Amino acid sequence: MHRRNFVNLTFVSLSGLFLAPDVIGQQKTIEPDLTALADGKVLRVYNCCLSGFKDGAKNGVRLSDDCVAYLTGVEFSNGAIEVEIRGKDVEQQSFIGVVFHGVDDKTYDAIYFRPFNFKTEDAARRMRAVQYVAYPTYTSQKLRDEHPGKYEQAVDPAPAPADWFHVRVVVESPKVSVFINDSNQPCLVVTQLSDRKKGSVGLFGGGAVGGDFANLKIVPA
User: Fold this and answer.
1) Using CA of residue 32, residue 184, residue 119, residue 138, what is the dihedral sign?
2) Burial 7-44 (b: 16+ CB within 10 A, else e)
3) ∠ at Cα 111 (181, 60), nearest 5°?
4) In the prediction, which pLDDT does 210 show?
5) Is 84 domain-assigned?
6) What is the dihedral sign for C-alpha 117, 55, 157, 77?
7) In the 3-class helix/strand/coil scheme, how is 160-188 assigned residue by residue?
8) Is 38 a member of any domain?
9) Based on the number of CB atoms within 10 Å of its own CB, is 149 exposed (0-12), middle (13-18) or buried (19 or more)?
10) Given this model, what pLDDT does residue 3 score?
11) pTM recorded for the entire structure
12) Where are the alpha helices (DSSP H) in the chain?
């Protein structure tokens, strides 16, 4: 992925998610209503294309461009981030995932997917289906050049590039494990490269067509 410099950050303000420190400390599961993201009264959007949608039983949000959407008032350390994701089968135009231990628009850890690589006949591209990065220092290109095959892997069994799939990212600092759908075997396991142990958490969308998100759940350890 060719990451552009962000000019502004997308901050997400969700009704009911302005949690006081004592609430955060209770380690409660958070399941925000993503449809609220389309409500201009609780949302400030910069340098990002974001909209709500309804697809059958799924109500969610669509992100494109290079966009980070943090949940306001939520600090995440260890635990699980679960979400349903649907990308597009458009080469180099659909990058979708989650961010955690974020500081601002330039500093965060992320797990993201390249759905257009899920089932490609190009073996090298298939090995670049899921990616870990730690911005701003550890970009995908830097990690690929210096540690080939360590921070990106194939997804097996791979979903269809334009289908919904369930993602569970388990953060046990410094270990991060990524699970797809009902698999008990992670498709990627890495050791975090950043030294942050907590921070903001949210969604990441990149590329011209981005992707869709539904049923986000944050489960603190």
Assistant:
1) positive
2) eebbbbbbeebebeeeebeeeeebebbbebbbeeeebe
3) 60
4) 85
5) yes
6) positive
7) CCCCEEEEEEEEECCEEEEEECCCCCCCE
8) yes
9) exposed
10) 46
11) 0.86
12) 21-24, 123-126, 140-146
The CATH number of whichever domain residue 132 belongs to comes to: 2.60.120.560
Tokens of 166: 């369930």
How many domains is the chain built from?
1
Contact (CB, 8 A) for 140 and 211: no
140 close to 131: Cβ distance less than 8 angstroms? yes
Which tens digits make up the pLDDT trace of 44-101? 444 567 778 888 888 888 887 788 888 877 899 999 999 999 999 999 999 999 999 9
Give the integer Cα–Cα distance in Å for 153 and 43. Answer: 34
In 3D, which of 10, 133, 137 has the Cα closest to residue 65? 10
Amino acid at 199: G
